[in-house]
Amino acid sequence: MKNLASKLCLLSLFISWTATGATPLEIRFCPASAVRIYPLEDHRDLQSLLLHNAAVINHDKSALTVSTIELELLQSGQVLETKKLDDKMIQFFIDRGAKAQAAGVLKLVAFQFCGTDLIGPSIKLAGPKLEKDQALMINSQIFAFRGTRDTLRMRVHGKVNGKTTEIMGTLPIKSEFARNKYIFPVRGVSFVGSGASLHTPHRWVIPEEFALDIAKLGENGLSHKGDGTRFEDYFAYGADILAPADGRVIEMADDQNEDTSAMQRPDEGQEDYFKRLQTEQAERLEKGSILGNYVVIDHGQSEFSLSAHFKPGTVRVKKGDQVKAGDVIGQLGSSGNSTEPHLHFQITDKPGLGGAGIPMNFSNITILWADLPRPLQSGDIVIAK
């Protein structure tokens, strides 16, 4: 009878909310359309899933006090995994969210929080007690599993006016890769320094979750000769960048300079360099110059490629141009937020940094040391035919 009474109470709250056309309590996800999986080990059917952001928001004058949050993965309506966030973990996200909002992080890297779609301008991050127009945001929740999952569900447990309540939100899980057929954007043998693997930074950023950082290695096993203080020292510098598929150029830039100070100095330790890099990256974000020289191509089917960090003055296409797969669109450089000459390449569901990443395969590559064809991982050496 206790469970029945609780359900009836929740139903009465729901009826009163919908009768007025309001949604006092809601769960939002970012990205909002779906969460995508990527193989951890393709041939053993081991998958990874990363929920970037979710928020429970109170729009009502009655406060919601959050006690626990559960994240569930479902297949055909059956719960197969559950992750429970207790009060200590919830407090961790409360503290981190408040600090990030106060420091202006949500505005500085708005692409990581879906602009203002997740946390609107009038919403304050707080908790565990959420007053009117307050929200609790959680980030970077990882799952690993075998097989398939089709739905992520978030359950928020708490109290409103002393009465136990539960709020639920669901998000589709997508397992498919990009729909269009793509070729690798650099010819010959290349090194994928960062891919969709969890130990490199791309996976944790929404638009570049499945992006690639592409360089070339020399006989010395490094990406450069000499001490690496000049762009010309790098084996990839000046390499042709190719259109990965047919499409239309919708954005481009070719007027951004390269800055050698963005690279690690020979006498600079890794920790010191990382501290300096963080400061300089924040400055580039504020200036809106992180891409440097770049090209965005609309390939149809809501898929857009971004190739970034071109060598200044080498972009060969302009807005509105139609390109074919394999056309040379510029030369690899180190403009923008680039720690050394490389090509940043990604596919997203919206142009540039405004969308969410889409996993991709390439029709013309062999992965060195891979027994069978598989999706790319960070650290792979690929041979593009």
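That was protein one. Protein two is written in the same sequence-then-structure order:
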Amino acid sequence: MWQELQGTALGKWLAPVEWLSPCGYWLIQHRTQLIRPEELPAKVPAIFCDFKASNWGMLHGRPVCHDYGNNQLFTIAKAYGGRLAKAVWTKE
């Protein structure tokens, strides 16, 4: 998820991943600081669904999710996957 969303508007909500083992078993991620209840955001992107404060932390003064393995990306993709978009082809 991080690899696909880094650098996007959604990526700013995620604790960055520094390294992921080839098999996906080991993950090294930026360490977040403990988040206080009053720092938890009132609204978050719709991809998040596991709303435990322990999944969130502070990174560089802003709240980020550091446990985003349980998300709604597949649910959202199923809902919108059948829609067609105009293809704009380029010459290679």
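The radius of gyration is 16 Å. Keep this in mind for the problem set.
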